[in-house]
Design a protein that fits this description.
This protein folds into 2 domains: 25-110, Sandwich (Immunoglobulin-like); 114-228, Lipocalin (Beta Barrel). The protein is 10% helix and 49% strand. The protein has one helix spanning 2-23, and strands spanning 28-29, 34-38, 43-45, 49-50, 58-61, 68-70, 77-79, 86-96, 99-110, 114-120, 133-137, 142-147, 155-162, 165-171, 188-197, 202-213, 216-228. The model is unreliable at 9-21 (pLDDT under 50). This is BIG2 domain-containing protein.
Length: 229
């Protein structure tokens, strides 16, 4: 009876230790809970810190995100130019045998200084646009615009973006104006569109309007397109 009792006690201790290993919290995290990258830039988020309880495992993204790939052996994440502008919640799964753990962080693709070529037409029913303009967007929310090879056509304005919906208010032939004053000027141009992005190019496209205050009116004038390779 004593032999069986000792054997039973040993088995209980072994099982208890095994259960402790299975339920032991694992320290699994990346260097930060927030990462920022410039729109259409490439980079790498270094591998995470993890204390594997037994054998080393592998890493994967819980949900695929266009523009992100993960090294299954190290957990390092590569960022490609096709990552869309805005915030992305990234959740990574670490798995070893039948056990798995998750960690998350926020990755933000920020539209900083960018250089675009495109133009606008005067026909709301036509998608054809002559590429005759240069548009520069700055991180502070201001912009410059000018017609190619047309002296004195330089203009200024402001822009904003929410998700991939972008708005611009601008005035050409008014380079001396404070960009922040453009939304309050009569007959300024208002652009409303979307930003689309892939590995080859980014494109802003949509409708543009003329805004008047005396009398108050907003008139649709045509379509616009600007591209950035």
């Amino acid at each position: 009876m004593k032999k069986y009792s000792i054997l039973g006690i040993c088995m209980f201790i072994i099982l208890a230790c095994s259960n402790d290993d299975d339920t032991k919290p694992v320290d699994f995290h990346y260097a930060s809970e927030n990462f920022e990258v410039a729109f259409r830039s490439q980079g790498t988020i270094p591998q995470p810190s993890i204390e594997w309880p037994q054998e080393n495992g592998t890493f994967s993204l819980k949900n695929s995100i266009e523009g992100l790939t993960i090294d299954k052996n190290t957990g390092a994440i590569s960022i490609e130019r096709s990552l869309q502008v805005g915030e992305h919640e990234v959740t990574v799964i670490a798995q070893s045998g039948s056990q798995s753990w998750e960690t998350s962080f926020l990755l933000t693709s920020v539209l900083k200084y960018t250089f675009w070529v495109g133009g606008r037409n005067n026909d709301p029913d036509s998608e054809e646009v002559e590429y005759n303009s240069i548009l520069q967007l700055y991180e502070d929310g201001t912009l410059d615009i000018e017609l190619i090879d047309e002296v004195g056509s330089e203009g200024v304005g402001v822009w904003s973006i929410e998700g991939n919906a972008i708005q611009m208010r601008l005035c050409t032939y008014c380079s001396d104006m404070d960009p922040q004053d453009v939304p309050q000027t009569d007959e300024h141009s208002y652009f409303e569109g979307t930003l689309d992005n892939d590995m080859l190019t980014a494109k802003i496209s949509g409708k543009w309007f003329v805004v008047r205050f005396d009398p108050d009116s907003t008139t649709l004038r045509g379509n616009f397109v600007f591209e950035w390779d």
